[in-house]
Design goal:
The chain has a single domain, classed as VSR Endonuclease (Endonuclease, Chain A). 22% of the residues are buried. Helix 4 links the parallel strand 4 and strand 5. The chain is 39% helix and 14% strand. By secondary structure, it is an alpha/beta fold. It is built from four helices and five strands; from the N terminus they run ααβββαβαβ.
Length: 148
């Protein structure tokens, strides 16, 4: 399938996609703060620069976009153009995510992944339910968690 926009315009569109302070991330941060949790953002000292770091709970939270991290939900579809590039890019992201998660676990951190599809799209969860699950996980001793 041929792209319907010029390469220059596609480049500008793709460069406008943010990696930090995304809408799902801001929603989670605002609600955590409202519930009394204090955190650090995008710590460069930790593998993978987690979106939210809660040192008191020895926990990190990644808020992953379903497309960029290859989540198998209704929001993810393999692109139909430039297939080889996208397969390499997304599978590379998945592999890097796994390595960073393992490094964090090895350092004694607990990891929660909140997927974009839990917060938006036709199959999204109720925001309060998502936050309740997140808070329950933070107060538990579970090493891994995932909200999707």
């Amino acid at each position: 399938m041929i792209d319907i926009v010029s390469p220059g315009k596609r480049s500008r569109m793709m460069s406008g996609i943010k990696g930090k302070n995304t809408k799902p991330e801001l929603i989670i941060r605002k609600e955590l703060f409202r519930r009394g949790f204090r955190y650090r953002l995008h710590s460069g000292k930790l593998p993978g620069k987690p979106d939210i770091v809660l040192p008191k709970y020895r926990a990190v939270i990644f808020i992953n976009g379903c497309f960029w991290h290859g989540h198998g939900c209704h929001l993810f579809r393999w692109p139909k153009s430039n297939i080889e590039f996208w397969r390499e890019k997304i599978t590379g992201n998945i592999q890097r995510d796994a390595m960073k998660r393992q490094s964090l676990l090895d350092e004694g951190w607990r990891i929660m992944t909140v997927w974009e599809c839990a917060l938006r799209g036709k199959e999204k969860e109720n925001l309060q339910k998502v936050l309740d699950n997140l808070v329950d996980w933070l107060l538990s001793n579970n090493r891994n968690g995932e909200i999707q």
